[in-house]
Amino acid sequence: MTSLLVSPNQFSTHSTQATVKDFITLLKPGVMALVVFSGWVGMFLAPNHLHPFLQNAVLIAIALASGGAGALNMWYDRDIDLLMRRTQDRPIPAGLISPQDAFIFGILLIVFSVLIMGFATNYMAAFWLAFSAFFYVVIYTIGLKRATVHNIVIGGAAGALPPLIGWVAVTGEISLEAFLLFLLIFLWTPPHFWALALTKAEEYKRANIPMLPTIAGPQATKKQILIYSFLLIIASYSFPYLFNYGWLYGTIVTILNLVWLFFALKLYFNNHNSEAMRLFGFSILYLFLLLGALVVDYGVYR
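The structure assignment produced for this chain is given below.
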């Protein structure tokens, strides 16, 4: 069993054993995929369009910023990662990459990402990209994650910014539609992470992270998941109501919302971790398909 006392000597001081795969793991590629996709959706839905070369530059910048923020998150959380079964095999606690190398790697990626965005598009997009990385690393990882039960609610803003960044990269300004894209992911984030946290409550407690299930208990967490589920569903219907989205998006989002609500209600009335994992797994598919429905509907009706 892993000791609760983490010594700095438990971490490697060099990265001679590290492989390219280990550095890719630092980037949190699963998270990066969703971040880049949502950024592309913001670009696609914007009223103007960039040259394909510039579009690729924007996506590369978003990917680098996401990866850099992920690396800095693992750098700062290396002590608690060592205490949790889900994260103890990450490159830093596993001794494959030194904390110093991970820190430098993360900083360089973020700096390059902001420079690329600024030169390829506009300074407003570069600002929001830098702000998203700052918010995730400094406000969420360093400031909120270990300090408050509201860590995910507030910290989720960082992960919700990519579609807004993609939009601003094209237009140079923030619109209501861009804000609603942000709001969708912002409202999606808490139930997504709380569903996972329900299954990992003991690990979070061991690492002294004040996640909602460890502080308020499982039933209060399920209630909050249900509340945020209804808020997310309401927000998802704002697009056909406020903008020119048709029956295609409306049909797809209604099916997605019914399935989400089914899983959320099953979780609320049951105490099995399997129900939480079903909602967690579906939530990822939900967001990809919802954003995809916006893209397909936009392509058909505009």
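Interim note for the steering committee: The two ends are 58 Å apart (CA to CA). Confidence is low (pLDDT under 50) at residues 1-9.
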